[in-house]
Amino acid sequence: MDWKAYAAQKRNSILQLIPPAWKLSVAVPSPSEQKDVTGKYIQQFLTTKEITITETDAVGIVQKTTLGQWSAQEVTEAFCHRAALAHQLVNCLHEIFFAAAIADAKKLDQYFASHGKPKGPLHGLPVSLKDQFHVKDVETTMGYVGWIGTFEGKKGTGKEKVFESEMVTELRDLGAVLFCKTSVPHTLMAGETMNNIIEYTWNPKNRFLACGGSSGGEGALLGLKGSPIGMGTDIGGSIRIPAAFNGLYGIRPSHGRLPYEGVANSMDGQNSILSVVGPLATSAGALRLLIRGILSRDPWLHDPLVAEIPWRHEHEQFILDIARAGSKKQMCFAVMKDDGIIHPHPPIRRAIEMVISVIEKLGHRTITWAPPSHQEGIDIAGKTFMFDGGTDVRAAFALSGEPMAPAIAQNYAKQSPEYTASQIAATNVQKRQFQKKYMEYWNSTSTITGTGRPVDAVISPLAPFAAAKRDTYDYYGMYGGAWYTTWVNLLDYTAAVLPVTTVDKEVDVVDEGYEPKSEQDEMIHKTYDPELFDGAHVGVQIVGRRFQEEKILTITEILGHALGRLVV
Amino acid sequence: MDWKAYAAQKRNSILQLIPPAWKLSVAVPSPSEQKDVTGKYIQQFLTTKEITITETDAVGIVQKTTLGQWSAQEVTEAFCHRAALAHQLVNCLHEIFFAAAIADAKKLDQYFASHGKPKGPLHGLPVSLKDQFHVKDVETTMGYVGWIGTFEGKKGTGKEKVFESEMVTELRDLGAVLFCKTSVPHTLMAGETMNNIIEYTWNPKNRFLACGGSSGGEGALLGLKGSPIGMGTDIGGSIRIPAAFNGLYGIRPSHGRLPYEGVANSMDGQNSILSVVGPLATSAGALRLLIRGILSRDPWLHDPLVAEIPWRHEHEQFILDIARAGSKKQMCFAVMKDDGIIHPHPPIRRAIEMVISVIEKLGHRTITWAPPSHQEGIDIAGKTFMFDGGTDVRAAFALSGEPMAPAIAQNYAKQSPEYTASQIAATNVQKRQFQKKYMEYWNSTSTITGTGRPVDAVISPLAPFAAAKRDTYDYYGMYGGAWYTTWVNLLDYTAAVLPVTTVDKEVDVVDEGYEPKSEQDEMIHKTYDPELFDGAHVGVQIVGRRFQEEKILTITEILGHALGRLVV
């Protein structure tokens, strides 16, 4: 059997796990006929109760489930149904295990009935997972045809469909219900989501555009409200890009805050810029709920790379005290409108201005962010991502003989020389020196913020466009477009996505007079087309220092509230 | 000028910085004539007041200096005098800057006089530094002849004698007085201290034996009470070995607890097992004083690799509450008497038994530590330390053409092939899997401790001998003897040294019937000679989980107190 047959078999097996009652009875319209399949479009296939449940954020859901007002079963069934629809609309799932989820939900309901209390703070909350997390009885392909029927590409390990990632165990113990795994670009090293199994995952809000990547299936699924919260990973923007492209909240925590233990990955063991796990959700409160839950489990006792930093309520309170009406205290934000390399499209610039207005309206301050050369950072990150010259991902493709998607082939079609230990060490030193320089720049802002502190956060685009057109997202920092996310990974900062607005073709007109700074800049400038992008989501990122998850989530929630987007 | 002339010039320049009044008027006796130059021997050259000051631990010193009872100047002068004597006895200094120290102390006294309060919690406390720390107006050679007149081997950087390490800045801001830098083995990768500049640093308690390494000059200096506290570094035992060999307390914190920023190093950028900074001192309380001080400065704002974990008083209190008389609560310690690879010498085994007795006398429990294979860990650590095949250290020797000491030549005389990115990544994965396995073993002990918790700490030898004979300490894990320290580095655990006893030739007799487990084991078994080792210090290590510095220091202090060794 060739790779195409394996891929087709797997693709069909996913579709076959959708119960007949949840199969779409109508053909999916073309993007020209129906650009946006969120909202009213998908609602037509759901009951009123299903709509009510699935359009409630995770915080609202657990308020009901932990009091027994909604059963775990009805919540789970509603999300399974909506997720099934979402997959048929935009190809966002890799694994479906609705039956197991509903069985788990029933057990939770029994637990509630017999104990008179919820199992944990996430009792009955459906959580979707990017297809890197291992779940018992479920396969993990990570988009590789060659991983079908294996454990991370290896056969006969005894771990196939048995082993579970640490995060999965913790989520179950907190009472969450796991029900599906979502699509990823093969290799994970892309800002779009495509592979030879499920093919391409489209953006449900604007089906001419990408859903983002690499946690793209999560973005698309949550964008359709087929899940209230999902777990992604981010090594160069992979949580933030799909969060923003789908109008969601999301957070890239610093490395070592949440457990990555036992999660499949590309280039595992590359130790310089590490991938992190983090949630995407329809509210900032949902992100806090999940992170607090996980930290309450002392994950540092089960993942050797997690630092012992429990949830710090006082860090939230510090911001809440400033923000409280009548406090007479201020925050100060730095704003980076343009990184000097790629000029963001008009809707992104408008979103940044909207956030500045909101900050000022709330009585806080802004300054301009003028950091050390981001070009230097791009060079370091670019080297790091190419340490093995493609060895790891090429071996995964070789398992089946399947071809690489164009965005992947551009980096990995040919094997590059592997870096030596000395070259890696030199890059690590260069990275640390860049981090130090950047850190001291951040410290230096205390003289101009007017608050007596350095800036509380940096507001920045996370991509130069609202969403990418197919095959235009250059993920790696070295190509410029992705550097709006990757600088955060290089510096190991905390960054949350704040959904701000949508593209408005009447307002966000083309910059006719813009003179590009480079060929790359020109290329990205030219991809903007108001008619095509109209309606697409626009988000920005709120960046904090290392391990500032509590502070950044609180700020993000405050700004989201002020923008009228407490729950999206 | 050849390397010998440069080395001699540097060696003489150090000696010339000792004021004539502090030069020894008598020839240093041979080790056969005077094995032990600590205590009464060195006291003969000091005034009563100098003895009182220098035999007070850091906690006692700052109690006096921060109340103005002792001036910073008199304290500094006393330690400078004693350090000058120490160097003449055992070759423990690389850099002397007594004049600058006394000038700094005078400024502190002026500060106290004009402000009526100390500058900080370390006001007037002399702190010695391993010769990896950069101090303004002072050179850093790290024992390399080729680094003389350079900044880390490079000329014309503009940083020479100007740049300061982050830790140095923090110590000054806390009120500490820096006065000398101490000897290291060239490369730092040795458990003994020798280089072509100062030659060999001997153990002051038993001058037939090594002072340990790589923070060996610190160990010897503090062993002679020429400093109350000093900063070392530890990648495979380099704080713990000299602490134990010189009867001191010392701590190897987890990586990311204290700032390493701007400190010179070997193989900088090797990112798998990272060197850490930590103090050695004459009391556990002194270690706490210094670490609390550094953490009060928010070092995570100045070192990108430091995690935001402030000093956690509640972690100390947790142990103090258990230990309080009448609490009826217990701790449980795991004891590893033998790692199954190298059998410790009789005095080490006796020290372990002494600690067990003390634990039982205090009403706590012990179990046997039966962890995952330490041989597997040795293999991983051995690979990590050879990633660059010698490229970095060989380049440093090549600068001057100087020869390697035998312990160094054994690993680096020939260039080995460099590891590739893929090989490094595979080693990193193997390391993480070993850490996870070890962590789950630790967790599993909760079923047998009787306390409801996993073991609170592990008691283990940190070397199979009380101190090494010259040229017998195989530092690297792959040779077995050093694995008693290196497993802690591989696992990134917190480990403190508890000074327990001294070798007693009458009690610690040779194991006549012992059957060695291997050639290595036999070799180490044969190095034991009660007559030669008689009087040498014996310490053990108290090992805690990652980032458990507060807990481990508290336990170490309690056990030291019970052993009658609150201040050594």
Please give a quick description of this structure.
Chain A is of the alpha/beta class and 568 residues long. Chain A is built from 20 helices and 13 strands. In chain A, 38% of the residues lie in helices and 11% in strands.
Helical amount of chain A: 25-40%
What's the number of helices of chain A?
20
The largest beta-sheet of chain A arranges its strands as 1-3-2-6-8-7-12-13-11-9-10
Oligomer: homodimer
Broad CATH class of chain A: Alpha Beta
The CATH topology label of chain A is Amidase signature (AS) enzymes
- Characterize the biggest β-sheet of chain A: 11 strands, mixed
* Strand residue percentage of chain A: 5-15%
Number of strands of chain A: 13
Please give the CATH architecture of chain A: Alpha-Beta Complex
Q: How many domains of chain A?
A: 1
Give the uncertain stretches of chain A in residue-range form: none
Largest interface: A-B, 44 and 44 residues
User: CATH H-level name of chain A... which superfamily?
Assistant: Amidase signature (AS) domain
Question: What number is the mean pLDDT of chain A?
Answer: 96
